[in-house]
Design goal:
about 325 residues; 3 domains
């Protein structure tokens, strides 16, 4: 049978109200009594009920982490998993729990988040891909729940957002390819309305324009973030009458898929075609050849988003300007 607050009070010889004050760190309890009650809590192995704990401070000590992706995609994406780890590290330090809210098949984007908000069971939420939840964004704006967005858009426009410097990261990657002698540089992007992808494309075009190099429509292809799509698009690019000598994929998984297809077709990487990815997932360094990539500081992005959210929850600020973390170019064997 689980230990209750009544068991603690009886063992400590105090009222349940006193136990509750000690657990919620309320003043007006002597240090002697506080220490005694905490010793009894430890001795009995009492675990406070989170919901009950929240009643004392109008908090639940739970934050939501909402995604516009189904769970099978979410848990297969190393970048998102690293971001989640950063959020969890800060939440643990704040003694908070995290409630994951992936999308459900057939549901309107953000419906799960709205459903959760109606329960008033979270103190705040970090929302990934707010732009993909436009159908419910207006309803979310009328709620006072503190929210932070991973990406370029939040309920407050560009405020309370955390993202990497996608444009500069892409520009660095393409400039590296140009400096190593490439002029025919292709892109594998994703045909989604994502500002991060638009910024990477802008960086790609800007680097080419600076060197007065062409950006041909046939050199811009569309995957879906997966290795399979990277393989498909690399095969299509290699079949062109004038194929590229370098491929810049907008995530590492597509870049790895591209290399797999090139190798299958007898093309050497980087001797015949150089390949660069984006994200720097763990597999990038372990792949053969090791993948050159643009590193997004996913762990730091998760930490920054959580720190921002807890500052909003605690009332230290009403809003924050966008937090832009620098991207960095990681050169490995696939492009050198």
């Amino acid at each position: 049978m689980a230990v209750t607050i009544y068991d603690v009070a009886k063992k400590a010889g105090v009222s349940t109200a006193t136990v509750s004050k000690v657990l919620s760190n309320t003043p007006y309890v002597s240090e002697k009594t506080r220490a005694h009650v905490l010793n009894v809590v430890e001795e009995l192995g009492f675990v406070p009920n989170v919901a009950a704990r929240g009643l004392n401070k109008a908090r639940t000590y739970i934050i939501g982490l909402a995604f516009p992706y189904a769970s099978d995609y979410l848990f297969s994406d190393p970048h998102l998993l690293t971001f989640m780890r950063g959020v969890e590290q800060v939440a643990a330090a704040q003694e908070y729990n995290i409630l994951l809210m992936p999308a459900r098949a057939g549901e309107e984007g953000g419906s799960g988040l709205l459903r959760l908000l109606r329960t008033q069971y979270v103190d705040g939420a970090i929302i990934v891909g707010m732009h993909q939840m436009e159908a419910v964004a207006d309803r979310l704006r009328y709620r006072t729940l503190p929210t932070v967005a991973l990406g370029y858009h939040s309920l407050r426009g560009g405020e309370n957002t955390v993202h990497a410097d996608d444009r500069n990261g892409a520009q660095m990657a393409v400039e590296h390819l140009i400096q190593t002698g490439h002029e025919r540089i292709a892109v594998i992007s994703v045909n989604r309305n994502l500002t991060a992808l638009e910024e990477r494309m802008a960086g790609y075009r800007q680097a080419l324009a600076t060197r007065q190099l062409p950006s041909r429509p046939e050199w811009i292809t569309w995957g879906d973030f997966t290795e399979i799509s990277g393989r498909e698009q690399a095969g299509r690019l290699l079949g062109l009458s004038e194929p590229p000598t370098a491929i810049f994929a907008f995530n590492d998984r597509m870049a790895i898929g591209a290399i797999q297809q090139l190798q299958k077709m007898g093309v050497r990487v980087p001797e015949d075609i150089s390949v660069i990815g984006f994200d720097d997932i763990p597999a990038a360094a372990m792949f053969e050849p090791a993948l050159s990539t643009v590193r997004q500081p996913a762990l730091a992005m998760g930490q920054a988003a959580a720190e921002m959210l807890f500052a909003l929850i605690g009332g230290q600020a009403q809003s924050f300007p966008a937090r832009v973390l620098p991207a960095s170019l990681i050169l490995r064997h696939s492009s050198t």
